[in-house]
Amino acid sequence: MKIATYNVNGVNGRLSVLLRWLQESQPDVVCLQELKAPQEKFPIEEINTAGYNAIWQGQKQWNGVAILAKGMEIQEIGRGLPGDPEDLQSRYVEAIVNGVVIVCLYLPNGNPAPGPKFDYKLKWFERLHARAASLLAHKAPVILIGDFNVMPTELDVYKPERWVNDALFREEVRAAFHKLVSQGWTDAIRKLYPEEKIYTFWDYFRDAYGRNAGLRIDHFLLSPELSGQLKSGGVDRHVRGWEKTSDHAPVWITLEP
């Protein structure tokens, strides 16, 4: 099973890019983030025509997450990260696809830090810790997938010294990510490429893509039931070079029983 994640940075404005990549890559399951579309504006007809079923949690202007599955049923478990009923941001959806619990998430950016947005990010992380521990307790195959807005180590960021005070790289955020992984999750891409510089995001400014001045912020965390099934993975880096594309590139892994 080929599973991918893609922060599409506006699903309608970049629909042609998404559809082109789906046709080229043929993933079985896709998690999308940053739909930037209200619930009723998600392009479900075009997604269906491309061969995919979908569930999504939209939000006007910002955020939004979706799970796509090629020719497979998507059994929704829930939407919205538990722990704060007043949190109305569309950042989290869970479903079962082909016997695997798929968690699609879009963790808050947190900038500027310190400040209220950074506090929200850390609290969101705490809620994610609780939910992730609950999922692990079921001993079911689970994957946490999406844009975590965290570079876990210096290997995951171009010129890390320039990012020490950024909310994506601050010590508190990296500690929160490592605390999550230490529950028993496997960082799939880093397991496959333990020493390589691999980026999933390149800013639109200062020719970041051309200079390969990137960040690795899109991740797959595998539960112990799946870590042994990981066979391959990578970044479709060339998609970042397409016209009118997202500032993220799609990332994918393959699992084999």
Automatic annotation (TrEMBL):
One of its GO terms (biological process) is DNA repair. This is Exodeoxyribonuclease III. It comes from the Bacteria. Residues 4-248 form the Endonuclease/exonuclease/phosphatase domain. Keywords: Hydrolase, Magnesium, Manganese, Metal-binding. Belongs to the DNA repair enzymes AP/ExoA family. The lineage of its organism: Bacteria, Pseudomonadati, Bacteroidota, Flavobacteriia, Flavobacteriales. Transmembrane segments: none annotated. The record marks N149 as: Transition state stabilizer. It holds the Pfam family Exo_endo_phos. The gene is xth. Its cofactor is Mg(2+); Mn(2+). Mg(2+) binds at N7, E34, D147, N149, D247, H248. PROSITE patterns: AP_NUCLEASE_F1_1, AP_NUCLEASE_F1_3, AP_NUCLEASE_F1_4. Probably binds two magnesium or manganese ions per subunit.
